[in-house]
Amino acid sequence: MTVTAVVPLPVGYAERRDAVFAPVAGLSALVRVVRALGEVGVVVVAAARPLAVLAREALVGQRLSGVRVVEAEAPGDRVQCVAAGLRAVDTNGHVVVHDIEWPMVGTDTLKQIVATLHDGSVAVLPVLPVTDSVKAVDARGVVTATEERSALRTVQYPRGFAADVLAMLVRQADSGSFDELEAALTAGTPLTLIDGDDEALSLELPRDADYLAAVIAGR
Hints:
By secondary structure, this protein is of the alpha/beta class. The chain is 34% helix and 23% strand.
């Protein structure tokens, strides 16, 4: 089955364009993500109207003109972006959804997601165990207990889905702030967990640009 990676660019980034297009260590978050995802399949950037032209220009400028950029329906929230990306996907194939706020894509994790989908899973999530101490606090902010963390996990991107399953979750969504994991949990979709990437992290660019550059230099 085919694998298509979808990168949503919701309308909120129209006011934070540097988070998508400003270079860090020579490459923007968009270009860095698209290049990494392109290792396992076709990449579709699904952008709100104010961002679509900028996305095409940024990709052409990095010799990525073959990457398809599709325009989301108004208002261009995340749910419309994911829906637009799905319209460019083989409904019998697999989809990898990535979030631009995770600019470092672990190749091994990405390949494991694809392999797990090919093995029959319909939703695949990379996770890491919670290693920090987790405390419960009351309304006054006073620590009342130490929570058991052995069953806790942090969830990362990218996330893999059977295309028809993700399409169903999008159709059922009633909010522009669509989160495919929350939608899958609500729908009772079987989730397959795989080991995440210790170096993957969510960043707010351009605020965290220096930190990201240091991480890249240390690799």
